[in-house]
Write a structure and sequence with these properties.
By secondary structure, the protein is α+β, with helices and mostly antiparallel strands. The protein is built from one helix and six strands. It has a domain of 68 residues.
Length: 124
C-alpha cells in the first residue's frame, strides 16, 4: 500500500532532504474513514414552479476530518486535519420560459450537417 497522497517514485519528498536524501517511495500508511452529513431543502413556487429557493448545508455536524497515518524506515507521521468546510447557503432560481430539448437537438444536427458540408467543399 502506498502512502496516502504519495507516489511510488523515489524522486519525491517535496524537495526535503532526509537521512541519505529523499524519502523513498515505499512508505506505508492508511486513512481513517471520513464521515459527514449534507442536507438540502428546496421549495418551488409561482406558476409552473418557475421559481425555487434552496437552503443547503454541508458537513452540518462538522465531523469531516482527515486522519492519516504514514510510516517508513525514516519517519512516523500522523496527520489530523479539521478544515473549515462547514457552510450553509441559500439559492434562488427563476426559470424564464420552458426548456425544449428538441430545439437543442435540431441545432446540433444543423451544425453537424454544416461542418460536414464545409469539409466536403474543401476537397478537390
Amino acid at each position: 500500500m502506498l502512502a496516502p497522497g504519495g507516489s511510488s517514485s523515489s524522486g519525491g519528498g517535496g524537495g526535503r532532504g532526509g537521512f541519505g536524501g529523499n524519502v523513498s517511495g515505499n512508505a506505508q500508511g492508511y486513512n481513517m474513514p471520513t464521515y459527514g452529513v449534507d442536507v438540502a431543502l428546496k421549495y418551488e413556487f409561482l406558476k409552473g414552479k418557475a421559481a425555487s429557493v434552496t437552503l443547503s448545508g454541508n458537513d452540518i455536524f462538522k465531523t469531516r476530518v482527515s486522519d492519516i497515518y504514514t510510516t517508513s524506515g525514516f519517519f512516523n507521521q500522523h496527520q489530523y486535519r479539521v478544515r473549515d468546510q462547514q457552510f450553509f447557503s441559500i439559492n434562488f432560481a427563476y426559470r424564464f420560459g420552458k426548456f425544449d430539448a428538441s430545439l437543442l437537438k435540431r441545432k446540433n444536427m444543423r451544425s453537424e450537417q454544416e461542418s460536414m458540408q464545409g469539409g466536403m467543399q474543401g476537397m478537390p
